[in-house]
Amino acid sequence: MFLAIDFQSDIPIYIQLKQQIIAGIARGELKEGEELPSVRQLAQDIGINLHTVNKAYNLLKDDGFILMDRRKGALINSLENMADEDFKFRLREEINPLIAQAFCKGMTEEELLLEIGEIYRSYSQGVKR
Amino acid sequence: MFLAIDFQSDIPIYIQLKQQIIAGIARGELKEGEELPSVRQLAQDIGINLHTVNKAYNLLKDDGFILMDRRKGALINSLENMADEDFKFRLREEINPLIAQAFCKGMTEEELLLEIGEIYRSYSQGVKR
Amino acid sequence: MFLAIDFQSDIPIYIQLKQQIIAGIARGELKEGEELPSVRQLAQDIGINLHTVNKAYNLLKDDGFILMDRRKGALINSLENMADEDFKFRLREEINPLIAQAFCKGMTEEELLLEIGEIYRSYSQGVKR
Amino acid sequence: MFLAIDFQSDIPIYIQLKQQIIAGIARGELKEGEELPSVRQLAQDIGINLHTVNKAYNLLKDDGFILMDRRKGALINSLENMADEDFKFRLREEINPLIAQAFCKGMTEEELLLEIGEIYRSYSQGVKR
DNA sequence: GTGGTCTAGACCACG
DNA sequence: GTGGTCTAGACCACT
Description:
The structure is a homotetramer.
Chain A: H1 13-26, H2 39-46, H3 50-62, E1 66-69, E2 73-76, H4 85-104, H5 109-124
Antiparallel strand pairs in A: 1-2
Helix pairs in contact in A: 1-3, 2-3
The structure holds a DNA duplex.
């Protein structure tokens, strides 16, 4: 799997890393049960510190995307039925300001939903459900 | 207008302030040409630092949501046709990871668009277009 | 408040720190809304690294014992009605092996409950409820 | 006897193993003089490293729960009157932070003792004393 | 001033 | 070999 980290971005590296791995799962490139590289390995590959990778892995673990197995390291978790109310609430909280902005800038509902549907399908096409 | 700042949030106060003001515009509570409180006034009302309010105002100015007038202070700008390609690009960049996450957690496209449409209409209802 | 860290203990420093602060709250020495020292300050006082203090604070935040206020730093949170089912489940998980051990070693239920009641009251005496 | 090891737990496998065996003794499933599986056998059954089982057995031996016999392997020891002052001291040390936490979260003494009594009796019912 | 991020290097516990 | 802990020192964002 290819991880593109932008060192000039104002988004922290460990957040980018987390997002890229989630995107990898969404695209179906990382499948349930698959092992992620060790923190040391990945840190070396990307050219960053192992603590930064570690932080990303821990966030992914806390959010249920991966499991930390004592024998095998980090494993992709099952991605079924995890959209509980708590997740949806946080999603709304995060997405809300973006929608307010889009509305102010004059985007219509149709335009917005079209954009989002496109992004969604860029993921759903790669994965059988 | 009511500004709800969460001092425990991991979102910086000046960003929250910016988002809340945009939401106010989106809800139609702040109309074109209307004056925002002075930096000093707002800082005192909320109980935060001058610089923090200043930063938020400057961001809003940079994004075209307000105009800074030497005599009248900050004025709400017109909200027409500002969704240029650059804005849409940044919107996609920001919304993309959220959608990947929603997809991984098992949300269907319908569910997602329904949620977003609801949020959108919570704004569009208050404003005549 | 006095924090006694045992550097020889096999319990990690940040865990000891977390436990000591919880004990401080339980004894009523740290009251709701009170400010904790900054990570740098406390780290210097105890003679440890600020990252170690930071880790303890973050755990306390995750467990709801403190709030991280953007203006005031770390604040003791309200300690009302936080014993939800999730907490009780984790408590049982952690306490279970200790009880199994006590049972195997021949402690009677009375003996055990007496010990625990004593510890509990060592906390409840200092706080009005 | 059924040993449920959680490879995702933050508790080391050898500690889990120790706890599970003690729980087995407490439930009366493992009786005095009974033989435990050989280190090799158990390691293979659970799918873990030899060293890990070895470590657990050695801890159990140190704590007096089993005897290591050169010919018969590991034998369950008698569980009489082993709750010396040293054990009680360590028990208090370990259980204290949990109680402080429960107190902070608002559990009453009655609630706590009820929970603990329940766990205790889940063991004492299976064993004649 | 604060906490957050990132780096670097060390040691240890675990498997 | 792995991840977990701790240290040390740096820079930056925030208030």
